[in-house]
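Protocol check, entry for the methods section draft. Step 1: assemble the input record (protein sequence plus ligand SMILES). Step 2: submit for complex structure prediction. Step 3: store the structure tokens unaltered in the notebook. Ligand used here: zinc ion. Step 1 record:
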Amino acid sequence: MAAAPSPIRMSEEPIQMPTACPPDCKAWHNPSVAASLLGVSRRTIYRLMADGEIQWRRRRWGRAITHEEIRRYQSERARIAE
Ligand SMILES: [Zn+2]
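Step 3, stored output:
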């Protein structure tokens, strides 16, 4: 039996959805967004930042990671997984 497509849940609060990023997104993202883009927990993101696996900068609003850096890590991780 085929799985039914997951229903789109309407959120009452505006959240920054990763899917809202353009393919060539060059924005800075906070660790929460970076975590959802990579499909990992926020805890993992903080560990990766601490380990220097993901480069980040401090911004006025907190830690920031470029989408480019997220993509770089993603492709690197995919290479390691091979
Ligand atoms: Zn982005």
